[in-house]
Structure formats: structure tokens, C-alpha cells
Design brief:
Layout: E1 3-7, H1 12-29, E2 50-55, E3 58-66, E4 72-79, H2 88-102, E5 107-113, H3 117-125, E6 130-140, E7 154-158, H4 164-174, H5 180-188, E8 194-201, E9 204-214, E10 217-225, H6 234-246, E11 253-258, H7 262-270, E12 273-285, H8 286-289, E13 292-295, H9 301-318, H10 329-340, E14 344-351, E15 354-366, E16 375-385, H11 394-408, E17 414-416, H12 423-431
Parallel strand pairs: 4-5, 10-11, 16-17
Antiparallel strand pairs: 1-2, 2-3, 3-4, 5-12, 6-11, 6-12, 7-8, 8-9, 9-10, 13-14, 14-15, 15-16
Helix pairs in contact: 4-5
Length: 447
């Protein structure tokens, strides 16, 4: 594994390394998305935003946190194609997650291009996160420009120190922002690569809009009109005004919109924008996922068996020709026998006083034989997470605990077996770093 570093700002050489890696990944994955390395809109600039992994002076993996809203961070990450499936992303993620948790950033949002098959597959296997929403990136087609006259009742002004109070009032309500308003304002007040505009209706400030300039591309963002003034065409007039203001500097103009926001989507279409790219967002709440992992006690056995019963039901449903329905007394007694044995344990995950996950493990030593060397390994016999607690990272926490426990006990490997019909379990184990080293196969003579 390479050397990992985190930074709040990028030096020029590091920025070039990231752009080079992004180009390699985009070519390999056949994607066209751009990468933005600005942290101007991050509400807390003391939180490291860049996490990098180098191997022999070569950047092999990169993760960035974009934090325009308090308490949440968008994650964008890339791993060199030759270094994938080696735990690079997991290492960077764990470091970024720990930083976020310490800074009370509890919502992580993974950004994945819809047409990136590698990224989408990774999200299916990344059991901590679930799909949240999608966003369209739209590009302006100057040939579709609406050249109508702007209503004389409407006026527009750049955001300045003089009208900053009006900006604060409108932006906080129209964009539903709190402390983030100051971050947006600080970004547009200097005469740099960002601008802000106020829209006035009959002399009253009613809307805000922002524009960024980056590598010849102009991005319109943070567009909002006060709720009581919506439905009057003010949003469309605002977009037309901004287009007229910036088109002479570049006709490469883009805007992003939530796929669920059909009103805004139709507005941008009517202003000459066309969909160029779709991006999916997956959400993880790391505060919810926090739980205690410990060894089970006698008083936990009833709850442990409830979870084991769920495991058996899955197997019965998947292979009724092999597994017996129900959960007989002998099966229930197994849990107590494991607790009494020196050759195994039961690990439980507890949250708010409730056991929401468990794993039965065995410490296996196989003697040398004419065919095999002696083998010692830590075996995961059963694992279960209560259905209502799934996709919160609890299963991963159980696995990570068992990996550490196996190391403490002197084992050099953790093994488990899984049935082919259990696709969810297969995806989970692969996401947790397990790989197949042996297969059992069958040929049904009555099929």
C-alpha cells in the first residue's frame, strides 16, 4: 500500500498529478466528466479536502471532499486502473471519514457519473451508501438562444459590499442556507473567478445567482428566487440576463440541476440548455452507523438466535432442496455451545442498547495431511444484520472487528463460505475485501 497524505490546499505539482490521474481514469473508463479542485465554497476550509496516495512518487489514488453545506461532504474519488481492488479507496475513505466525524460532518455523499460502469458497480458493492438522487449537467447551445426582451420591471445588479445585506437576506431564504451564505458571499466579493448577481422586482431584491469561471468554462450555480415571487418568470429572466452578461467571455456555459426539480429542468431547456451528462449521488450517514462491537454474553443469546433464525430463513428460501425450514432446538443450542467453547466466539453489534448484528466465528486448526500443510485460520461461520439496520455500515464494522481480532489472536487469514444464490452477501463480502479462492460445483441429474 502506498503513502497516504491529506492537504487543505494543493501545490501546483500535486494539482497536475491529480489532473493526470483523472485523465488516465477517464480514458480507461470511457467517461467525459470534468474534475473541479476548488475549495472556495467549502464552509470550513480548515478541514482537509484532499486525500492522496502515492507509490514510488506516483499518484495512484485520490479523494476530494466538497463541503458547501455544513454537516455534509460530497466525495469524488479516482484510483489508477492498475491499482484497483487493492484497498486504495478504502484507505483514503477511512482517513477522510475519521476527519469528517471529528469535525461533525456526518453525511457523506458519493458522486458517481451515471455512465461510469466501474463507479456504479463499486457503489453496488459499497454497502455503506444508498442511492439518493441524480443531477443533470446541462450545456448552453447558443443556437437555441431565447432573444426575447427582458421585462422592464426587473433589474439586475452585481453583488457588492454595498448590497451585501440584501444578498444575505435573499440568499438565505431563496437557497435555504444558513452559515453557508457567508462562504458564498466571500467567494464572489473579490474580483476573481466568481461573480454574484441580485435580481430586483419593482425595486425589491427577490433573487440571487452565481457564476464561476474555470478553464474556459462558465458555470451558473446557486440560482434562486424567493418563494413568494416564484411563478412570475423571474427565474427565466435571470438566466437570460446572466447569459447575456457572460457569453462574450465564453460560450462554454453549463448549469446543473437536480433530476427531481422538473420546473428548473424545463426552465433551463427553454433557455437553450441541453443535457450533457447525468451524475448519481449516493448517501451515507456515518453518525447513524456508529455502534459498539463486542463479544456476546449469555444474556445476548436470545437476540443472537433471532438473527440466526433470519440467516436460516434466507438459506431455506434460496435452497429449499437442502435447508430445513424452522429453527429447531438443536440449532438454537449451537449459540450457547459457541460461548462455552474455547474454539470460537460470537461477536455482536449494539446500537442504542439493541443488538442489531452478530457473527459466529470459529478458530480453526487443520492438521497436516498427505495432501495439505497444517492450516490455521479465523472462520466466519454465520453473520447477520437486522434488516432495518442494513446499508448503514454495521456489517462492515463487524468484519473490521473480526479482522483485527484475528490479527490479535495470531491468525494470518479470515475465511468464510457463501452460497451462490445469496448475491447480496457475495457483493458485501467482495466490498469488504474478500476474494474467492475455492469453489464447490454441482450437476443436477434430475434437472
Amino acid at each position: 500500500m502506498g503513502n497516504t497524505i491529506c492537504q487543505t490546499e494543493l501545490e501546483e505539482r500535486t494539482r497536475k498529478d491529480i489532473l493526470d490521474l483523472h485523465k488516465i481514469c477517464s480514458t480507461f473508463d470511457q467517461t467525459a466528466g470534468q474534475i473541479y479542485l476548488s475549495t472556495e465554497l467549502n464552509y470550513d476550509k480548515t478541514i482537509p479536502a484532499f486525500y492522496l496516495m502515492y507509490e514510488e512518487d506516483k499518484l495512484i489514488a485520490f479523494l476530494m471532499l466538497f463541503m458547501p453545506e455544513k454537516g455534509e461532504a460530497e466525495i469524488t474519488a479516482y484510483t489508477h486502473p492498475q491499482h484497483r481492488r487493492r484497498g486504495c479507496f478504502r484507505t483514503l475513505y477511512e482517513r477522510a471519514r475519521d476527519v469528517c466525524a471529528a469535525k461533525n460532518v456526518h453525511k457523506l455523499i458519493y458522486v458517481v457519473e451515471s455512465d461510469c460502469s466501474v463507479g456504479q458497480e463499486a457503489m453496488k458493492q459499497w454497502c455503506r451508501a444508498s442511492y439518493s438522487f441524480s443531477e443533470y449537467k446541462m450545456r448552453w447551445n447558443s443556437g437555441q438562444q431565447d432573444s426575447g426582451l427582458i421585462d422592464h420591471k426587473i433589474s439586475f445588479w452585481p453583488v457588492t459590499i454595498e448590497n451585501s445585506e440584501a444578498y444575505r437576506t435573499v440568499a438565505s431564504k431563496a437557497l435555504e442556507m444558513d452559515d453557508e451564505v457567508e462562504v458564498f458571499l466571500e467567494a464572489v466579493l473579490p474580483a476573481g473567478n466568481r461573480r454574484g448577481y441580485l435580481e430586483y422586482w419593482q425595486g425589491m431584491p427577490v433573487g440571487v445567482c452565481h457564476v464561476s469561471f474555470d478553464d474556459g468554462e462558465i458555470c451558473i450555480y446557486g440560482l434562486g428566487v424567493l418563494e413568494e415571487y416564484r411563478g412570475k418568470g423571474l427565474g427565466k429572466e435571470f438566466v437570460r440576463y446572466v447569459l447575456n452578461e457572460v457569453k462574450d467571455e465564453s460560450e462554454e456555459i453549463v448549469i446543473e440541476v437536480d433530476s427531481d426539480n422538473q420546473r428548473a429542468y424545463r426552465l433551463y431547456l427553454s433557455c437553450g440548455f441541453e443535457v450533457e451528462q447525468k451524475t448519481d449521488y449516493y448517501e451515507e450517514n456515518i453518525e447513524e452507523a456508529a455502534c459498539t462491537i463486542r463479544l456476546a454474553k449469555e444474556t445476548d443469546l436470545e437476540r443472537v438466535n433471532e438473527l440466526r433464525r433470519q440467516v436460516n430463513a434466507v438459506h431455506v428460501a434460496g435452497r429449499p432442496d437442502i435447508f430445513k425450514p424452522g429453527f429447531c432446538r438443536e440449532m438454537q443450542e449451537v449459540a450457547g455451545e459457541i460461548l462455552q467453547s474455547e474454539d470460537g466466539d460470537i461477536v455482536v453489534a449494539e446500537r442504542d442498547g439493541m443488538i442489531c448484528g452478530m457473527a459466529c466465528v470459529a478458530y480453526v486448526t487443520k492438521a497436516e495431511s498427505p495432501y495439505n500443510l497444517e492450516r490455521r485460520y479465523y472462520s466466519v461461520e454465520e453473520i447477520a444484520v437486522e434488516e432495518t439496520f442494513r446499508r448503514r455500515g454495521i456489517g462492515i464494522q463487524l468484519v473490521e472487528y473480526m479482522k483485527q481480532d484475528a490479527r490479535r489472536k495470531g491468525f494470518d487469514r479470515v475465511e468464510l463460505d457463501v452460497w451462490e444464490f445469496n448475491e447480496g452477501a457475495l457483493e458485501f463480502y467482495e466490498a469488504a475485501g474478500f476474494h474467492t479462492f475455492r469453489r464447490f460445483m454441482e450437476y443436477g441429474l434430475n434437472e
